[in-house]
Amino acid sequence: MLVTGAAGMGKSAVVQALYEPLTARRGYFIAGKFEQFRRTPFSAVVAAFKALVTELLGESAERLNRLRNDLADALSPNGRLITDVIPQVELITGPQPPVEELGAAETVNRFDAVFRNFVRVFARPQHPVVLLLDDLQWADAASLNLMRGLLTDEHQSLLLLGAYRDNEVDANHPLTAMLARLAEDGGTLPGVALKPLSTDDVWQLIRDTTSASMVEAAGLADLVVRNTGGNPLFVQELLKTRADDGLMRFDRTAGKWTWDDLAEIRAKGFTESVLDLMVARLGRLDDGTRTTLQAAA
Ligand SMILES: Nc1ncnc2c1ncn2[C@@H]1O[C@H](COP(=O)(O)OP(=O)(O)O)[C@@H](O)[C@H]1O
Ligand SMILES: [Mg+2]
Fold first, then answer.
1. E strand or H helix at 227, and its extent?
2. Cα(54)–Cα(285) distance, rounded to whole angstroms?
């Protein structure tokens, strides 16, 4: 399943909310996200399985023994391909011998096939795996290929959840190509496109957060939606900024938030993009903190 929407629309929040219902009875929920500036191939997929293997290391000796056998059956003689990217697997399987040298294309195909076998060890009917891959707009082509392989592998008890900013994925994006190839092979992914919060949603959110009266909340909700387009991240940031600037205050005696003049809130204006938002937030830090952040970056 694919969840789409612009930055801040709530994609990560909604897929993470599936954790409880999907794992309530059995199965594993694992997640990884792709990074904009660190495009190591397979990073998100590897991160997800690293976490799973690390968790499984705490299982009983008997279960680990069974896992060792299953992994040997599934991976041999190419276990090294997996332990090279997920070193924790070696703690279960022991060191793996070097693999045969192949040409470039064969090397890629072999990796994908071995990785599919690896996933199959974990994704079984008695304990299905939910694999969440977040920020697919930054996925590398190799990961997308692997993902397509996993999606077309019928022997998996695997639910793949992907989230991405559809407004940053155009016709030339590798994700578009991957989805097109998947469709050619007869595979389709159901999609959920997140919509902005409505004025009613924001009204409800403000009432829950501030304990304001219905009328007070209505005026603010209207203003907030007009300034944010109902993007949940912007809604949250706008309210936080107003509180930081002292335009909204917590009244301890009344036990609720108050604000006196909507005009005053309105006059402050608001930023339109995540970038502006981050820049504005950094701008509110003191010099010392900014210098430290700069050094760390
Ligand atoms: N339906 C919602 N109601 C209130 N807040 C939300 C909602 N969806 C998301 N948020 C909040 O908005 C912010 C952005 O959500 P996030 O899931 O990180 O967006 P995305 O992954 O699409 O960039 C988060 O702080 C999240 O908790
Ligand atoms: Mg996200």
1. helix 214-228
2. 37
Amino acid type, 155: H
User: Cβ(11) to ligand 1 under 6 A?
Assistant: yes
Question: Which atom of ligand 1 sits closest to the CA of residue 16?
Answer: 17
Supply φ then ψ for residue 173, to 5 degrees. -75, 140
4 contacts 165 by C-beta, under 8 angstroms: yes
8 A C-beta contact, residue 125 and residue 157: yes
Report whether 229 contacts 203 (CB < 8 A).
Answer: no
**Residue whose CA is closest, atom 8 of ligand 1?**
10
Tell me the pairing of strands 256-258 and 249-251.
Answer: antiparallel
pTM of structure = 0.88
Domains of the chain: 2-193 (3.40.50), 199-288 (no CATH)
Q: What is the pLDDT of residues 199-209, one digit of tens each?
A: 999 999 999 99
Ligand 1, from 199, 225, 233: best to mutate by most atoms within 8 Å of Cβ? 233
Q: Which residue has the tokens 């469709």?
A: 183
Give per-residue burial for 268-282: e unless 16+ CB within 10 Å, then b: eebbeeeeebeeeee
What digits encode the pLDDT tens for the residues 29-42?
A: 999 999 998 778 89
Between CA 12 and CA 27 the distance in angstroms is 20
